[in-house]
Amino acid sequence: MATDYDAPRKNDDESSEDSIEELKNRNTSRQSSVVDEDETEAAEGFELPGADLSEEELQVRVLPAQSDEFTCSSCFLVRHRSQVAREANGMFFCKDCEG
Fold first, then answer.
1. The domain spanning residue 91 has which CATH number?
2. Which residues fall within 8 angstroms of residue 68, CB to CB, at 6 or more apart?
């Protein structure tokens, strides 16, 4: 809800003028129990666990390893050279795995 910080503030006398009935009516008039959501549209975005995706074809562009990257021998993630914590027998380990 937006707040107008330039509007004059109410005094304590003015705020006490609102009756409880008026406040209840204002509160219920703002809230709506109807939700505007299309069920079929919402259901299309969900993937169920164990769903058969064998007919799906993924389109992914794979980039070759860059000169400033390495693959961690523990977690097998491609990392930047600044993340090398240790090298042993030509294998690199990242700071997250060593740390």
1. 3.30.60
2. 80, 81
Q: Which domain holds residue 89?
A: 63-98
- Dist. CA 48–CA 75, nearest whole Å: 27
Q: What are the pLDDT tens digits along the chain (99 aa)?
A: 677 777 777 665 555 556 777 777 776 655 566 666 777 777 777 777 887 878 888 888 988 889 999 999 999 999 999 999 999 999 999 999 987
pTM of the model: 0.41
Count of C-beta atoms within a 10 Å radius of residue 74: 14
In the chain, the number of structural domains is 1
Q: Is residue 87 part of a domain?
A: yes
